[in-house]
Design goal:
The protein is an alpha/beta fold and 347 residues long. The protein has 10 helices and 12 strands.
């Protein structure tokens, strides 16, 4: 089954309590009312950790940030307001684990590895922008923690360079196809990259990190073989914050996970066969050989005497030779099924 990651990122708006509320939403049961089935919930939540000393140039940190989504007068103040410290990340980690969820961390700088003194995330994530940050990749690889990388800003050379750096330490690597356009236009998604990655990078787990609006593309990605799905999540898409509007809120989270799990149940095996569950419908709806006119006992059946009607519990047209030339042993009215016990076993 696909490993589904709910990316909280910084949709917590600097609040541990909001982060925990999002964890609560993710950990709710997924129940398909139509078939009265409980489905597997999302697998993990993810936070993002920045080290502001290793984030932006001084001029960018000090530039005025006048936006409806600003949490500070300068961009540096804005970023600082949205950061949770190591202890707060640990608090959210502990809460997520208590709810049965895995915990993934995006670490944006070598300095962020300080959180590893408090806990070990189940997986580390490399943001698309840091795929070319080879010193960071080396430091993350050295931890031996499984790593997920996104290709949102990368071509094949950048991807290969990243894999080579991490691969010096371990190969527990997952690759997510991604397009770093927020939101991503559907014509730019190019889901067929998933099949390309599965063909050419089959030694790694291949998935998809989605930035489109809605749930169609992550569901389609699973149908195309994505083993990991990552999607931004929040409590309310109207909340302050640049990522909120492009995230899934409570209902969207439920519907995406429900539909992915139902899709997974639908994929089946590469084979054509009659499913046992269709037996009742087949008997009711398929067609059987029937009389096209009233026929008397002793009549020898010819092809002109028959046609096809439902139900489908009689003799099929492919087997018509088993009754052509045989005699009826009872009268049959027009438009009645000719069952095998209506005919003589002799010609």
């Amino acid at each position: 089954m696909a490993y589904i990651i709910g990316e909280i990122g910084q949709n917590h708006n600097g609040s541990v309590d909001i982060a925990k509320l999002i964890v609560d939403v993710v950990s709710r049961p997924i129940h398909d009312k139509l078939f009265n089935q409980d489905l597997r919930i999302m697998d993990a939540v993810k936070l993002t950790k920045r080290d502001l000393k290793q984030e932006l140039s001084g001029s960018q940190m000090n530039r005025p940030y006048d936006s409806a989504h600003s949490f500070g007068k300068t961009y540096g103040e804005h970023r600082e307001a949205l950061e949770l410290n190591d202890e707060q990340h640990f608090e959210v980690y502990t809460y997520a684990k208590s709810k049965g969820l895995d915990f993934v961390e995006t670490l944006c700088a070598v300095g962020c590895l300080s959180i590893l003194k408090l806990f070990t995330p189940d997986k580390l994530k490399v943001a698309s922008r840091d795929l070319t940050n080879l010193p960071l990749l080396s430091a993350l690889g050295e931890t031996k923690i499984p790593i997920i990388i996104s290709t949102g800003m990368a071509g094949e050379k950048e991807l290969n360079d990243a894999l080579n750096v991490i691969g010096k330490y371990h190969n527990d690597i997952s690759i997510l196809h991604c397009v770093s356009e927020y939101p991503t236009k559907y014509e730019n998604v190019n889901l067929k990259t998933i099949t390309y990655l599965k063909e050419h990078y089959g030694q790694y787990k291949i998935g998809y990190s989605d930035h489109t609006i809605g749930i169609a593309t992550p569901i389609a990605a699973v149908a195309m073989g994505a083993e990991i799905i990552e999607k931004h999540i929040t409590l309310d898409r109207q909340m302050k914050g640049t990522d909120q509007a492009g995230s899934l809120a409570i209902d969207g989270i439920y519907r995406m996970v429900r539909d992915i799990r139902n899709l997974e149940n639908s994929l089946g095996v590469e084979k054509i066969f009659i499913e046992k569950s269709v037996a009742q419908a087949r008997e009711k709806l398929e067609r059987s050989i029937a009389t096209i006119r009233p026929l008397k006992a002793g009549h020898t059946i010819v092809e002109e005497d028959i046609h096809l009607l439902s139900p489908g519990d009689g003799i099929k047209w492919a087997n018509k030779d088993t009754i052509i030339g045989k005699k009826l042993i009872k009268d049959l009215p027009k438009d009645e099924i000719i069952y095998s016990d209506n005919i003589s076993s002799e010609n």
